[in-house]
Amino acid sequence: MKGHLLSTEDLSRDDALVVLDTAERMARVAEASVRKLPTLRGRTVVNLFFEDSTRTRTSFEVAAKRLSADVINFSARGSSVSKGESLKDTAQTLEAMGADAVVCRHPASGAPHRLATWVRGSVVNAGDGTHEHPTQALLDAFTMRRRLGRVDGLAVTIVGDVLHSRVARSNVWLLTTLGASVTVVAPPTLLPLGVSSWPVEVSYDLDAVLPKSDVVMMLRVQRERMSAAFFPTEREYSRRYGLDVDRAATLPEHALVMHPGPMVRGMEIASAVADSARSTVVEQVANGVSVRMAVLYLLLGGSGEVS
Amino acid sequence: MTANGSQQSWVLRQVRPLGGDAVDVLLADGVVAAWRPPGSTSPDSEGLPPGTTILDAAGLIMLPGLVDLHTHLREPGREDAETVESGTRAAALGGYTTVFAMANTNPVADTAGVVEQVWRLGLDAGHCDVRPVGAVTVGLAGERLAELGAMATSAAEVRVFSDDGHCVSDALLMRRALEYVKAFGGVIAQHAEEPRLTAGAQMNEGVMAARLGLPGWPAVAEEAIIARDALLAGHVGSRLHVCHVSTAGSVELIRWAKAKGWQVTAEVTPHHLLLTDDLISSFDPVYKVNPPLRTAADVAALRAGLADGTIDCVATDHAPHALEDKETEWAAARPGMLGLQTALSVVMETMVIPGHLDWAGVADRMALAPARIGGLPRPAAEGWSSIAVGAPATVTLLDPSPWRVVEADTLASRSRNTPYAGRSLPGAIRATFLRGRPTVLDGKVV
Amino acid sequence: MASAAASDPASRRPGIARTVLSADDITRIVSRMAHQILEKTSGGASVVLLGVPTRGVPLAHRLAQRVHAVEGVDLPVGSLDPTMYRDDLRLRGVRPLEVTEIPDGGVDGRVVILVDDVLYSGRTVRAALDALAAYGRPRTVQLAVLVDRGHRELPIRADYVGKNMPTSRRESVAVRLREIDGADGVLIVSPEAGLTGAAADPGELP
Fold first, then answer.
1. What ipTM does the predicted assembly reach?
2. Which of the other chains make 3 or more beta carbon contacts under 8 angstroms with chain A?
3. Are B410 and B342 in contact (CB under 8 A)?
4. Which sequence positions of A are flagged as catalytic?
5. Which domains, from first to last, does chain A contain?
6. What is the reported pTM?
7. Name one GO molecular function term (chain A) (predicted).
């Protein structure tokens, strides 16, 4: 059977390290004068996006094209595909096109898992509902390793809407698998009830955690959460859980500030912090291409048999 | 009552009533006509009506025909998913002789016209008795009471009223419904789900939901309604039936309500007795159901509650869905599972084999108690308790020995959404009789 | 997900191994190849040594050391991983990627000598030539191999050959270097009697 990348929860430490090491090699390719590799010539990668996400889709597209794969962008957003039935129809269409890999972004948790049972090619989860976003976590880990030299032993603090965050879930599993100790910080309403079973520390007090953090990862907080009574006002959220300049100053000197984007400046993160030297927001984008090249290579670069 | 004008007689040779000692049982004129010494009956035995067929029933367990308080037959409206004919065929093959057909059809069974239509379709199909359930509120909208009295006095003689699929969440409306149906011995079967607590919910709230990133359906949303409704039922002195109890906390609340002496009854589905929410890690919507699959601790509490009678009966919540409503991503899939053809096997695996219930207990939880709760006309309900001579010949014969792998394609339902596909379950229904007439023989519909 | 793991086909295959080059042999051969390089490149002028991973890399370093010892010049040494340019990727599981390290000064206008341990089908060298092109345009590209075992499938030949070693396709050649394997030596592994055919490996050693 073909391999898939559906979640980081089922990714072993060895497999995660292979992805990161391979991404490191891919990053070196960017230094060559010709940045295109013939590796996946003749292979077809379909970007199947049921949700708008220009940055993630573009990142996968650049990654696939650098490896010479043919890329088909299949945007299902806004078409008649608002009901779920047609996910299977779409899968059958992709089969007919001979997709070797399907990169799937979907608003429903688990949609890529379903897709993987209907197509022969490899499925890469590019974000499913509030479940996982594995390549984002891999690029976050990759960014930490490049900046701080390691992931093992780092104290990583994830702040914000953990309940609805696929980035948080993927990072919790991946970073703890790689030996980091993770603390999640959020108002209790934005933590899942089952968080006690996660391998993380839970805190409601950002100020207490920041001085002990090597990395602080700020999650986007959507304003519509307010209307569902997850927190009273934007201002109160920002005061208690936003990373402003004063709070950022309490971080250790080497600490990184990360954000998966898109940022809500002034809400969860102040502009001055987002643009500071400790912010990795821009290099996360470049690292995203390297990590996604690595994932595509590892899934499609061989005969398909797991060696 | 005579079926099709000609009434054949049957001898069930060496059958074991309620799993007890073997005996030869004569079914004639629609009733259990005689018990004879085991193995003593042959075609030329004396005292047999002419043309009596002798059935070798050695090793088979005779149970009263099963009664399902909670079946979705989907007709009218979704005949692509199930019809009265196909659903009752599945019921007969599962050992059922009566099913209560839920009201959430299209149009909704909220008028005498619709319930009579369903009732007639059941008569025409002839596989088992169909007792329509009437909607509590018009269009299941939870705003105005439907004409409950008109449905009660219709040919369908509706006694069970339910908005199943929706909760009668308005406390005042629920109180009025409970009171109103007292006039004709009715019962309100509540789908206990506080809607504000389950907005967007996809699975049991807990460890698995946190992992899978699926919005949680908290146990408290069920328990809060059960507590409220039990208090209401106690207050107005009415009968309340709680549909598909799924949590340990619900079992506790029902135990408390019964201890108060209130007229509260409850059902549990086979799937809540067997399956847990960790199956959802595959994201296969065949496991999507409402109320959702819960944890192993809930399963244990439900089994204990069914064993000690806190939960009165097993009801299938048989909920067929067309392929396109299940072969999809989790959130888009409809909740519900097939149940009629696997219910007795699941109860055998979860209750009988572990020793929580004997076969008499199974007869009570799957036939007698639901008949009582559903207000089935006497004397039918009475005689069943012993399957004694004179009782209606409405029975089913179970072979307890085989373990069979469930294959979705071989089920009688028009739909395929069984959560047990590929799973091995014990027991097989060999024959079912409805008032002396076989509906199933040799494991096949007659 | 498929995981890539490095493995040495010679060590996991059942068979009979015989040593064909000793540690001393290898030292002498490397020394001779260093002399040939100096001779053929007019004292190593504008030469860049690029080892093909895995074992081509330490060989390249050894050649550079010998050149330094003889002539006192320091040749830039790097590595060039041809994996992503191979034409046979689909024939087996995913191969792990190795390091590509182009020395400062690049390869434009230089005499690049590719260094590998075994020359067999020639497909690795072809891939390496493609990989090299991504980094610039050398004036000349030459090839140095420790062992040439024949059976070429492409029109490729080596400029510097440590040892010509006729082999059967059924056999495999295992080069051991102390930097990687703890000791030097070259072995030929023949399939065991009764296992012939099953052990045949159409590919090259990585």
1. 0.92
2. B, C
3. no
4. 55-56, 83, 105, 133
5. 13-132+285-300 (3.40.50.1370), 134-281 (3.40.50.1370)
6. 0.91
7. aspartate carbamoyltransferase activity
